Amino acid sequence: MTDTENRRPGPWDNLPPSAPAEREIARPAAGDPPLDKGQNPVWAVVSTLLLGGFIWWISGSWVIAVAAIWGLFVHEYGHVLAMNALGMGPARIYIIPFLGGLAKSQRLPASEWHGVLVSLAGPAFGLLAAIPFFAGFIATGQGMWLLGAAVIALINLVNLAPAPPLDGSKALGPVLARIHPNVERGAMVLVGALVVFWGLTTGRFILAAFLAIALIGHLRRGAWRPEGRPLTGRQSAQSVGLFLAAAVACVGVGLAALMPLAGGTLPGAVTLAGGFLGVGR
Questions:
Q1: Is 227 helix (H, G, I), strand (E, B) or coil?
Q2: What's the Rg (C-alpha) of the chain?
Q3: Structure pTM?
Q4: How many Å apart are CA 20 and CA 168, to the nearest integer?
Q5: 10-residue block means of pLDDT along the chain (281 residues)?
Q6: Which stretches within the chain are classed as H helix?
Q7: What is the largest CA-CA distance in the chain?
Q8: 252 CB contacts (<8 Å, ≥6 apart)?
């Protein structure tokens, strides 16, 4: 997930439209508040231990707990790299006990295109976290390492769901808003409600509660995407293409991890994946 330090009006705020030149991001000037120094190191360690311990408790596997924490950090670091490269840094990573983490920028993106790139950098870069777990399986032949790789793929795939505050909402929101702001709103509310329902029906109650609170908060604030230069038609097509590529990559890594555990068959891997997601149970 990603966050920005200072919110500008969103696409549903009742403000007159601005010309593209007027919507350029304002860079920090003298007298601005000091840059965020990030999460307190002690609290960051405590938050990480609480999150890892919670995952270990519900999964019963230290490999899955390590994979989830490692995958989380690599995912968020992908956002940090993109934010810093696009002039939004220095970005920081925050760990939220029992829930996950987020990358927080110091400045807003200069355009919606930059916002899309930042949002997709997390899931794309985050898949690299699976490499050590595939290596662990090759070295030991133990299937638990593949489960770790599958968990990492799942973390990044779930983040691509177009529901606030997940990355998918920031990647597809500007595309939908080109059609009409209410199309963005309706799609995000619908998907958000479905994701909350999925969390409730599959026993992921804390995640469901977190997403429900986030969805209500975004409805009240009305800002689900950056206000900078809007996407062009070409950038909209590229945004959809990059989103689909990231989703396919997540699915591919997940199935590659599960196939050896399912006798080497794709249908078996799909069935296992459905079990992870609580589908078809």
A1: coil
A2: 19
A3: 0.81
A4: 24
A5: 55 39 40 68 89 87 92 95 91 86 88 93 95 95 92 92 85 88 83 82 75 74 63 92 96 93 87 74 52
A6: 41-59, 62-85, 112-126, 131-140, 144-159, 167-179, 181-201, 205-221, 233-258, 266-277
A7: 63
A8: none
